[in-house]
Amino acid sequence: MDRITITNLEVFAYHGVLKEENALGQKFLVSAELGTDITAAAKTDDIEKSINYASVCKSIDLFLKENTYHLIETTTERLAMHLLKTYDRIETIKVEIKKPWAPILMTLDTVSVIAERGWHKAYLGIGSNLGDKEANLREAIRLLNEDDDCRVERISTFLITEPVGGVEQDDFLNGALLVKTLKSPAELLILIGEIEKTLKRERIIHWGPRTIDLDILFYDDEVIQTKDLTIPHPELANRAFVLEPLAEIAPWVKHPIYGETVLQLRSKLKSI
Q1: CATH for 204
Q2: Does 99 qualify as catalytic in the annotation?
Q3: Res. 165 pLDDT band, cuts 50 70 90
Q4: Which of 73, 98, 93 is nearest to 82 (CA)?
Q5: What is the rounded CA–CA span in Å between residue 175 and residue 153?
Q6: What average pLDDT does the segment 218-234 reach?
Q7: Which residues have a Cβ under 8 Å from the Cβ of 26 and sit 6 or more positions away?
Q8: Are residues 242 and 146 in the same domain?
Q9: Structure letter (DSSP) for residue 204
Q10: Shared-domain flag, residues 102 and 140
Q11: Which of 98, 99, 133, 183 is catalytic?
Q12: C-beta of residue 181 within 8 angstroms of C-beta of residue 145
């Protein structure tokens, strides 16, 4: 990935544990590495296809002046997340904030904190078989987009599928989503649970009917197995109602354990 680098931008702001730091302020030095793709900008010579570093510098200055935090760790984290959300072309970011005059009654050059953050790609399965099924799916997507840390990038066609698990119930309307997110997998799982609760999902019968069902299928190339979360989804390769819509929006995404693309997994399942 290409990078645009800002080094030691001087900002006078009011951050620190001591009351004097919050009241009198001090100088901070801010550096940022902005991960982006400069190909289009380089070919067209058009600033609109890149990240305007002058604008980023002004945003850094304004953010640090308008907010006050006790810890430089908090300041660095919040600034990194603010820039990621403000500039669509920033995919990853490394922010370092240096504090040249740290009040420790000893001689030093600077104290600094570095935070590296970035957008992640999460593929979700989505389904409903109670009430207005499409309205339920659309509302879940709206709630995902409403969260500051998520952006729904792609939505598959919604497909009518038969239920699995042996419980007699109505057909499902299923789809798949690509979500760019700043959340960790655990944080994304919590958000999904909150959305299901908002849409009144009830977990009464295993494999039973539900107003909404949201599952994390992939999260980047990560393999995760905890008490509450398994990624990739353990049943992904066995479910046509997942692979069909997923193949529409992510045909070449590889399963990090099986090493096969979504299209290959779908073809293999169809041949059984």
Answers
A1: 3.30.70.560
A2: yes
A3: low
A4: 93
A5: 14
A6: 96
A7: 12, 13, 14, 16, 99, 100, 101
A8: yes
A9: -
A10: no
A11: 99
A12: no
pLDDT given for residue 272 in this prediction = 75
Question: Which of 99, 118, 137 is where one domain is finished?
Answer: 118
What's the pLDDT band for 166 if we cut at 50, 70, 90? low
CB atoms within 10 A of CB 75: 25
- CA dist 16 and 97 (Å) reads 12
Instruction: Over range 169-198, report the average pLDDT.
Output: 94
Q: Residue-wise over 184-199: b if at least 16 C-beta within 10 A, else e?
A: ebeebbebbeebbeeb
Q: Domain limits at 77?
A: 2-118
pLDDT tens by residue, 188-224: 999 999 999 999 755 544 455 678 999 999 999 999 9
CA distance linking residue 1 with residue 59, whole number of Å: 23
Same domain, 72 and 169: no
pLDDT mean over 236-246: 95
- Residue 3: beta bridge partners? 35
| Pick from 50, 55, 57, 51: nearest CA to 10 | 57
pLDDT of 211: 86
Residues 126 and 114 in one domain: no
Sign of CA dihedral 59, 62, 64, 67: negative
SS3 state at 207:
coil
**Residue 84 · residue 33 · CB < 8 Å:** no
CA dist list (Å): 59 to 13, 53, 250: 13, 10, 35
pLDDT of amino acid 205: 47
CA atoms of 125 and 237, how far apart (whole Å): 13
**Amino acid identity, residue 164?**
V
Q: What are phi and psi of 14, to 5 degrees?
A: -125, 70
Q: Which residue, 197, 228, 223, is CA-closest to 210? A: 197
List 173's β-bridge partners, or say none: 128, 160
